[in-house]
Amino acid sequence: MPASRKVTIADIARHVGMTNITVSRALNKPEMVRPATRERIEQAALELGYVPNAFARGLKRSDSRLIGVVTASLDNPFYAEMIKAISRHAKQHDYAIMLFDTDGDPRLEAMAIETLLSYQAAGLILSPVSDEPDYRPNYLTRLQASDIAVVQLDRTLHDCGFSAVVLDNPGAGERVARYLLAHVFTPDRRTREDRLLVVAGPEHSRISRERLHGVQTALGEQAGDVGIDVLWGDYTLAPAVAQVRGYLKTHGVPRAIFGLNQLITLGALKALREAGIDRDQLSVIGIDRLPYLDIFDITVPCVVHDGYRAGAQALEQLLVQMRDPQAAPCTLTVRGELVT
Amino acid sequence: MPASRKVTIADIARHVGMTNITVSRALNKPEMVRPATRERIEQAALELGYVPNAFARGLKRSDSRLIGVVTASLDNPFYAEMIKAISRHAKQHDYAIMLFDTDGDPRLEAMAIETLLSYQAAGLILSPVSDEPDYRPNYLTRLQASDIAVVQLDRTLHDCGFSAVVLDNPGAGERVARYLLAHVFTPDRRTREDRLLVVAGPEHSRISRERLHGVQTALGEQAGDVGIDVLWGDYTLAPAVAQVRGYLKTHGVPRAIFGLNQLITLGALKALREAGIDRDQLSVIGIDRLPYLDIFDITVPCVVHDGYRAGAQALEQLLVQMRDPQAAPCTLTVRGELVT
DNA sequence: CTGTTAGCGCATTCAT
DNA sequence: ATGAATGCGCTAACAG
């Protein structure tokens, strides 16, 4: 019967009449031990219910098998997808994941980083609560001074020198704009009052800015008379609903609405429905796929990014950085695809 | 400037001319140290960029601040919701989450448990890959022998003696059946050929069995002539689509389809659409909410369970078990609500 | 309030 | 192929 007290390597050494170190080797570097003794040791370990102590091991050897994942929202399906990929690939390389959902709270984010540092995490995949330029968390210098590898995912900190996997935001904006030019704001149907409503994230969010900029570029070239209205908010559902609701009341129905992420787009659609505005009175287009809608024959054109791929790439990049701490930081960009 | 080498408690002790233990206390039990020295120590810690070593601490004091979460699928929104709740509440009690997505693979599950044991996790929230009675993982005895607290969530292992938070599965089945009796298989419209198609999870899954049993009970009482066809599968989308597709071909369109979870229901709807069968030719009803569909005016009646609540309760229960290892295991049931 | 001593469990020397 | 000694960084005892 397995004791309630912890079984250590010493217990099993005593059990087989060897010393600690031999047991340690038998368990970690089997080739350095005679097969016969190894078997006896493994046998004993099983019988006694031996469980290696990760703390003791981690204390001795300085490298840990831990990768931290810090993200602002588990419930965003796009993030869930990325985390799935990270988790799956981390496992393949024998790393365990320590997950932190910061819930958009900078304090929780800071605590998460502290915890990861104290656990000597080998790497960190970070998607901070904000990508606005003036968000300069205190933990930054500590992180940079530490020898933990860091890869940012999707959201990034303003020039912090870490690697990153980001989406092609300007490109997504451009693609949307070109689609609108081809199908909505066509020369023949264009009027002076045509307005495009862009529902964005936080006002200084890099991602929102880039996406918006893509739109402006592509639209500006050919469509001097399409006016763009922008509503700033955040990347969640409820505020988007409220914003759009207000806009509809004061400005009426725009010709098209562009939601800068999935939840925003859903929010806009919800506001439209509340207001009793049928979806064929205007065009709605978004970034990120609205899941499962194809099943109901609902098509909302959108730029789709492969979250699984982004997550996988982030982990790959992290492994590179972990292998070679000197490796130059690099930024990978995942392109989206317009799906109509 | 922070050194690249680790700063330990000893370094900062030297820096302020005190001994290790005083520093340790200043950092962990501030009230045991004179305010003045405490300040100097905290100051020094900051300057030197001190990071506590969780391994050393964990080795010394045997209790860890880690909670493991082992689940079969991060991408199931219902699970994502539960994990969100767990994460949020764990943080409030100063526990970090170690997350394992087993991807439905029993081997990965076993590895996850091993890892958690070796990290001396204080608690574990487990949703195993299978809830079929013949799934008896090897790690069970080790887990039982260990002093790690365990709470099962949603899926459970057949009488393993651990606490659990589960859904009211029979109740959900009954509620669905009663709804069908009231609105679909009404006496006046009932015919001998009326069939109800239930699309279930694995054939021996406790959850599926319970839900199905609920249906049979409620239906059997009053509806001798409603035939039930059951398709066994798993709890994911693709197999459900395939199953229902096949059924439609061979059996034609049933009077109603009942999907035993969210992804199954979506799968059924997808198969219907592929087959060009309009949704008002039959009734579709499910368990778990299909997210965001209200936005599009699509209503699929379903029994909704509060995943956030379930997750939160699991964590509460875990804390209870952790506080008092003797506490009797208990099973909490979360009731669902029919939403039409 | 502060210091001394000791040891958590394991793996890295260097021996044999 | 195996062993002896040592220390990773921290904190619980018990002093003082």
Automatic annotation (TrEMBL), chains A, B:
Keyword field contains Chaperone: no
Domain of life assignment: Bacteria
Organism field: Kushneria phyllosphaerae
UniProt keyword list: DNA-binding, Repressor, Transcription, Transcription regulation
Name recorded for this polypeptide: HTH-type transcriptional repressor CytR
A GO molecular function held by the record: transcription cis-regulatory region binding
TM spans (from-to): none
Keyword Ion transport among record annotations: no
Domain HTH lacI-type: 7-61
PROSITE patterns assigned to the protein according to its UniProt record, in alphabetical order: HTH_LACI_2 (PS50932)
GO process terms (BP): transmembrane transport
